[in-house]
Specification:
CATH class of chain A: Alpha Beta
Shape of chain B: elongated
CATH class of chain B: Mainly Alpha
Number of domains of chain A: 1
Order of helices and strands of chain B: HHHHHHHHHHHH
CATH architecture of chain A: 3-Layer(aba) Sandwich
Radius of gyration of chain A: 21 Å
Oligomer: heterodimer
Helix content of chain A: 25-40%
Mean pLDDT of chain B: 80
Structural class of chain A: alpha/beta
Mean pLDDT of chain A: 83
Helix content of chain B: over 70%
Strand content of chain A: 15-25%
Number of strands of chain B: 0
Number of domains of chain B: 1
Largest sheet of chain B: none
Order of helices and strands of chain A: EEEHEEHEHHHEHEHEEHHHHEE
CATH superfamily of chain A: P-loop containing nucleotide triphosphate hydrolases
CATH superfamily of chain B: MetI-like
Low-confidence stretches of chain B: none
């Protein structure tokens, strides 16, 4: 284990009861760590458990089993006081800027809420700080008294970012912060997040399904499939030299803005659909769609292991 | 020939273009005024202001609201300024029709109907408002706890409400009357015992969906306590639905009180209410129809206005529900 690890997740598991004694395993034995100051990207298709992982780390939904270690402390089970302390260090930015802001509150109240809860500053200082934060995220202080329905999607997401920054966290889970925005606004918000990382020395867990953006922002990338991490490596290493058959198929789907390259490119097309995460059997989750699948893949689930240089893969065939 | 002519024309156009070449010194920078970009041309409006604006546009709802306000004011003031009291008997003026002296006439004991109608309004409206508020409070608390905490608590409370709901309303009223005797209190208690279920189910549903919403998650992530989430986020977002249901339950209570009194198990004379007046009037419908028509008209108009106002309020508070 390396030094400077801020967050470590060990064998995290999250199951949901879906009635009729069936269990949906949204996150299955996920383990990874995030170093101080880096960005760990998490990619995967819709429904692969990316967001659930993020929310479980933030204790917004309770974990079924596993361990979450933050800054050397086991935070899997926290009482109210410990949780309050934790929220000062770790915050979250949500996917949908329309649903994540309370429409009955003004932008200023939303940003100040965290400071109010933690009893930081007095009322006047809080107001000053709200103006300062609005400025940081590229809005003006005139915006503080407006209600959220008076903002555009990009502006709302900036308010969401300001809210997360307000209590001065060091770690932020970005749960698909840009997927609900227009492409032109996406770039602005990404740049804002990168600038803030620089100036506030932030550590990000960046959840997204846009592969090019994840490559752009992340130091390391984890690929998830059906609740499990199948590959984890340095960003460049993963995009240049992916090993897991699923990662290969996934990355071959990245569109390239050059028709000649696109035409020459070999798209790996997977057969079938992602199987249901309800009552999954033993064996590799990708086995049913994998071109390299052997007998062992159906019998035993592969463990994530280091294949050299911090490149982790969960596959029997590599 | 033709070709030459075209060439000449092209040359002429080119020459003209050269003359109008733009040079840098012909331009000035426009001073950018950043504050102008963010200037608000319309004032910032909160949710409630917006709803009020929509409600004001709805003429029917506004007329109903004014009627209800006038009715309430009259119910408070009229009995105080009337020269007659609701229970003063006058045997020299029995069953008189409406006149300058007795605006709504008198009843079979010579009591002034104007005074009786407004006294009845007081009683009917009082029962309706108190019952609606008590029902809603109980409903909000039980529904809120059930929805927010979920699990076994939810299961227990919802099954309990099913049991309460399965017993007919009249049975409650008769049982309570047997124990407490007749009067306003037993009727209000009977309303409170049964009426909360609708509100509880509604609030439970709202709480179930709101507690999963992103902004509640965000508040949780900021470290907000359950109390803060409920008071600051859930209640303000549920208030619209709650107010509409509350408004709609008032005409229901007025009507139920009226029919209980009408069939004789509600209030007892000399206390009066619209239902009781209608009951007395019904006995003499063939000879003195005004004694029934007047209270009946008040019951119908009040219910209609309450319903229309509630409808308008729903449209105003939840624009998504509009057609």
């Amino acid at each position: 284990m390396e030094n400077n690890v801020l967050l470590e997740v060990k064998n995290l598991k999250k199951c949901f009861d879906v009635g009729g004694r069936k269990v949906l395993t949204a996150v299955d034995n996920v383990s990874f760590y995030v170093r101080k100051g880096e960005t760990l990207g998490v990619v995967g298709e819709s429904g692969c458990g990316k967001s659930t992982t993020g929310k479980t780390i933030m204790h917004l939904i309770p974990a079924t089993s596993g361990q979450i270690i933050y800054d050397g402390q086991d935070i899997t089970h926290m009482d109210r006081k410990e949780y309050l302390a934790f929220t000062r260090k770790a915050q979250m930015i949500f996917q949908d800027p329309y649903a994540s802001l309370d429409s009955r509150m003004t932008a200023g109240d939303i940003i100040a809420e965290g400071m109010t809860i933690h009893g930081m500053y007095n009322a006047k200082e809080r107001k000053e700080r709200v103006y300062e934060l609005l400025n940081t995220v590229g809005l003006n202080k005139e915006h503080a008294s407006r209600f959220v329905h008076e903002f555009s999607g990009g502006q709302r997401q900036r308010i969401g970012i300001a809210r997360a920054l307000a209590i001065g966290p060091e770690f932020i889970v970005c749960d698909e912060p840009i997927s609900a925005l227009d492409v032109s606004i996406q770039a602005q918000v990404i740049n804002l997040l990168l600038e803030l990382q620089e100036s506030h020395k932030l550590t990000y867990l960046f959840i997204a399904h846009d592969l090019s953006i994840v490559r752009h922002v992340s130091d390391r990338v984890a690929v998830m499939y059906l609740g499990a991490v199948v590959e984890l490596a340095e960003s460049n290493e993963l995009y240049e030299n992916q090993l897991h058959p699923y990662t290969r198929a996934l990355l071959s789907a990245i569109p390239i803005a050059d028709p000649q390259v696109t035409r020459a490119k070999q798209r790996i097309l997977l057969e079938g659909d992602v199987p249901s995460p309800i009552d999954v059997g033993a064996g590799c989750k990708f086995a049913g769609r994998c071109s390299m699948c052997k007998q062992i893949c159906h019998e035993e689930a592969p463990q994530l292991r280091d294949v050299g240089g911090g490149h982790y893969v969960a596959c029997h065939m590599i | 020939m033709k070709k030459q002519k075209i060439q000449e024309e092209v040359k002429a156009v080119e020459a003209e273009q050269e003359q109008t070449t733009f040079t840098e010194d012909m331009f000035n920078f426009v001073k950018e005024d950043e504050s102008a970009a963010e200037k608000m041309y319309a004032p910032s409006i909160s949710y409630w202001q917006d709803a009020w604006r929509r409600l004001k546009k709805n003429k029917v709802a506004m007329a109903s609201m004014i009627f209800i306000i006038l009715l309430t004011l009259m119910a408070i003031i009229a009995p105080m300024v009337s020269p007659y009291t609701h229970d003063a008997v006058n045997f020299s003026a029995m069953d008189n029709g409406p006149s300058a002296e007795h605006w709504f006439g008198t009843d079979n004991l010579g009591r002034d109907m104007w005074a009786r109608v407004w006294m009845g309004a007081r009683v009917s409206l009082f029962i309706a408002f108190v019952a609606a508020i008590v029902q809603s409070t109980v409903g909000i608390i039980i529904g809120g706890i059930s929805g927010y905490f979920g699990g076994k608590v939810d299961l227990f409370l919802m099954r309990f409400s099913d049991i309460v709901d399965s017993i007919p309303f009249l049975v409650y009223v008769i049982l309570i009357m047997m124990i407490m005797g007749s009067g306003m209190a037993p009727i209000i208690i009977a309303f409170a015992l049964t009426g909360w279920i609708r509100m509880a189910r509604l609030v439970r549903g709202q709480a179930l969906s709101l507690k999963e919403s992103d902004y509640v998650m965000a508040a949780k992530g900021l470290g907000a306590s359950n109390m803060r989430i409920i008071i600051k986020h859930m209640v303000p977002n549920m208030l619209g639905v709650i107010i509409v249901t509350l408004t709609m339950s008032i005409p229901n209570a007025i009507f139920t009180e009226a029919y209980l009194s009408y069939i004789g198990i509600g209030l007892q004379p000399p206390l009066t209410s619209w239902g009781l007046l209608a009951n007395e009037g019904a006995a003499v419908i063939k000879t003195y129809p005004y004694q029934l028509i007047i209270p009946a008209l008040f019951i119908s108009l009040t219910m209609l206005c309450m319903q229309l106002f509630g409808d308008g309020l729903r449209d105003a508070l939840d624009p998504k529900l509009r057609k």
